[in-house]
């Protein structure tokens, strides 16, 4: 390895020792007879100090010629100082240039000069060097790690559903068509049917992190055409069982991010509070609340973006659950109540004014599935293999899905979901 330490690993115990750091030239500064080079890696920024009379002329000459974003390896001794943010600086013994800047960097990495998001995304590999962008993806990685951790603790088994499907998995026509040999196929818009089939096959409790695609022509700050879902499905269970797991997993994610990413949250200026539990509100109660506060909404409609933002203010909770939805506005496989089929056992998780998770108890009765498909103007023959799976001792089951990008966006306090995707895909962007 070219380095002995990352910047974030250099603590008081390294003071007086010789170490090697590798990264990029974040900035260079000269104050009289003192030259500074700020070396940045994914964990932070280390001040490298070169004083005339202390450092060799050769090293000072190299330091003065460095331009921002030059890749360097610096070997030197760690010294305590009150003048550096970390409380330590590096006195160099050698500086090696391992990657020269041959073209003008398209925007200012330090953030001193703001850059348009599209400009940053056009050169995303450069944007990833920004401390703020690094913080976003450290948090996203922690979200997904915590998701896996909690579900392993709850005895869920991770699976990998297919990305190519023969027919729509959730109905509708917003699908990306691909040629599959002599057949027509589509990119999966959800792992829904396959995680249900896994449960029907006896796997009982399954979880997954997988990409999905939706060919909807959105131009919003909250939608992408390729996203990552964090899903579960559980057998011998109803909606209340799945809601209990959702609460445990969601709160564990928030706790883990707060515990393991405090510096990243600080960089992003996005403080995080973990609620003790998630309050549940019925769909009907929230529609009534909106209308009571002069935000008109018709019972049976889905909540608009504006409705969700108003509910965030009116409910007074950063995170809450919406239960007991109208059957007509939910996916065909959502289980209706026996005593009131117009209401189904579906639910959403709202966080900071945005839906970040959705789920339901599923229909496991073939005749009811067929009726619900027809009610959605879908052809049951297109779902025959799926329906047939429920003719062999089907069990009650339920599940949900968390949008990884949406949750990352809200935890990080971002204004555009594209910032929460490593290389986002929207209706206009296919590169890089």
Fold and architecture overview:
The chain has 432 residues and is α+β, with helices and mostly antiparallel strands. It folds into 2 domains: 7-99, OB fold (Dihydrolipoamide Acetyltransferase, E2P); 126-420, BirA Bifunctional Protein, domain 2. Helices cover 29% and strands 28% of the residues. It contains 12 helices and 16 strands. The protein has helices at residues 57-65, 117-122, 124-127, 131-153, 192-203, 239-260, 262-267, 283-292, 305-315, 366-375, 384-388, 404-412, and strands at residues 18-31, 34-41, 44-51, 71-80, 88-99, 157-158, 164-165, 177-180, 183-187, 205-213, 226-235, 279-282, 319-326, 343-351, 354-361, 397-403. A hairpin with a 7-residue loop joins strand 4 (71-80) and strand 5 (88-99). Helix 4 packs across helix 6 (239-260) and helix 4 crosses helix 12 (404-412). The longest helix is centred in the first third of the chain and has 23 residues, at 131-153. The mean pLDDT is 95.
> How many structurally independent domains?
2
CATH C-level class of the largest domain: Alpha Beta
CATH topology of the largest domain: BirA Bifunctional Protein, domain 2
CATH architecture designation of the largest domain: 2-Layer Sandwich
The separation of the N and C termini measures: 28 Å
Q: Please identify which CATH superfamily of the largest domain we are dealing with.
A: Bira Bifunctional Protein, Domain 2
The chain-level mean pLDDT equals 95
Structural class: alpha+beta
Morphology call: elongated
Cα-atom Rg, whole angstroms? 26 Å
Helix count? 12
Measured as a percent range, the helix fraction is: 25-40%
Strand content: 25-35%
- Main sheet summary: 8 strands, mixed
